[in-house]
């Protein structure tokens, strides 16, 4: 079944506009925020950002077939399209999504955390998908634009809608939760991420826990077991919180049993008597899989089907993805970087056997605020102390490398820019190494992939 069709009256009701001005017979086939992807029949929402203003493209959206536009200022080129004036188009997008949420019969699963949101979302969709119709966030569209669009594109016959909820400032999770009104909430982990505006790990924890606070009395909260303050604080808010992970803090039925690890770090374990054979490498992925399996249990998916669905999930592009380039093995993890996720990626690299050596190419961890220098230095020192043959420090890691020397079986190479680092790294490679590329999305370490492909 297609996505929700909006009447003019419903748009006005959602936006709090006067209903006596409704246009009889006007209907919209969907909502868009980008004139380039606007389709005939759409309602276009003119968003504004630091480097763009959607009001400049209302004419383009109408030319593409938009029948109406949500605007906060006068525009040109609307032609016969109906204009819906509002004070803030971003708030209006959220109101449209909240209205759509009210018409959905689906269970809504909200996922947040300092890292692991997207892989947990993918694993949850996999666990549910064998027996339920699932609509989930595409990629990592988890902000005040992306999450509402996930709800707005949900089909009428969806059984479950899985939405990521990201944040980088206080109050954002509460805003997203008020729009989505989730019935199940997952909090993967909490660490030193987005400190620029959230201030501290305690600030991050408090912000993320707004998802748990937003759940209805009959809702279900499921959290990871690290750091210890996460399950402890979550249970102070809701005693019925389920906890998944490796430690004794996790519920007994949400810990992995009979664990095996293959040569590339992918785990196999037993849950509820069924084997889960993960395709995505990394110890941290086990917890994410257990969170997904807990959701499947809440929704009523049979255990065997959930285990099979989780096992079938592959790594997303540039998220713990294993690529072979000639005889090199590249571990490409370029979508998220904070101290916690970098440590997890280094765990995976350190576990790799064979080849001519293990190399970690590290790119800047963004949005760490005043603690950035200290955190980059701490993570770099920990990387050097590992059983890794070469640590390549770029960006803020290169600045942290000033005055440091490699040790404990590792050598240190630093260069300000990734391209410069590759030029220095290339002569040291013999062609059979395992190489980790780990950095924040804005650093674009994946830009080095064509260089590896050309040379190897």
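-> sequence recovered:
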């Amino acid at each position: 079944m297609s996505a929700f069709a909006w009447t003019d009256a419903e748009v006005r009701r959602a936006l709090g506009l006067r209903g006596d001005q409704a246009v009889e017979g006007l209907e919209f086939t969907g909502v868009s925020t980008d004139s380039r992807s606007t389709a005939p029949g759409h309602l276009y929402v003119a968003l504004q950002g630091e480097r763009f203003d959607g009001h400049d493209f209302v004419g383009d959206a109408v030319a593409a077939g938009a029948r109406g536009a949500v605007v906060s200022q006068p525009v040109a080129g609307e032609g016969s399209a109906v204009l819906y004036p509002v004070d803030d188009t971003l708030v209006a997008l959220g109101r449209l999504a909240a209205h759509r949420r009210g018409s959905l019969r689906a269970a809504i699963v909200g996922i947040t955390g300092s890292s692991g949101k997207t892989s947990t979302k993918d694993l949850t969709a996999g666990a549910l998908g064998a027996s339920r119709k699932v609509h989930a966030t595409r990629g990592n569209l988890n902000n005040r634009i992306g999450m509402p669009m996930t709800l707005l594109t949900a089909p009428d016959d969806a059984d479950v809608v899985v939405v990521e909820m990201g944040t980088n400032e206080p109050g954002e999770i509460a805003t997203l939760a008020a729009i989505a009104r989730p019935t199940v909430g997952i909090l993967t982990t909490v660490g030193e991420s987005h400190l620029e505006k959230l201030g501290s790990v305690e600030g991050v924890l408090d912000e993320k826990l707004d998802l748990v606070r937003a759940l209805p009395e009959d809702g279900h909260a499921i959290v990871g077991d690290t750091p210890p303050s996460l399950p402890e604080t979550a249970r102070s808010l809701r005693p019925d919180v389920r906890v998944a992970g490796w430690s004794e803090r996790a519920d007994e039925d949400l810990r992995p049993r009979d664990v095996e690890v293959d040569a590339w770090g992918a785990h196999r374990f037993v849950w509820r008597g069924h084997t889960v054979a993960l395709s995505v490498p990394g110890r941290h992925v086990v917890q994410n899989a257990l969170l997904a399996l807990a959701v499947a249990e809440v929704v009523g998916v049979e255990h065997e089907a959930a285990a099979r669905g989780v096992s079938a999930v592959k790594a997303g592009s540039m998220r713990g993805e294993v690529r072979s380039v000639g005889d090199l093995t590249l571990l490409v993890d370029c979508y998220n970087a904070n101290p916690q996720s970098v440590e997890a990626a280094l765990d995976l690299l350190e576990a790799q056997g064979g080849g001519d050596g293990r190399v970690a190419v590290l790119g800047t961890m963004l949005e760490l605020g005043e603690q950035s220098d200290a955190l980059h230095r701490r993570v770099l020192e920990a990387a050097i102390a590992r059983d890794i043959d070469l640590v390549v420090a770029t960006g803020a890691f290169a600045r942290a490398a000033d005055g440091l020397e490699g040790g404990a079986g590792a050598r240190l190479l630093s260069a300000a820019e990734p391209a410069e680092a590759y030029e220095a790294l290339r002569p040291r490679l013999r062609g059979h190494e395992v190489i980790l590329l780990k950095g924040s999305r804005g650093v674009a370490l994946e830009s080095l992939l064509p260089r590896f492909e050309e040379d190897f």
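The first helix runs from residue 8 to 15.
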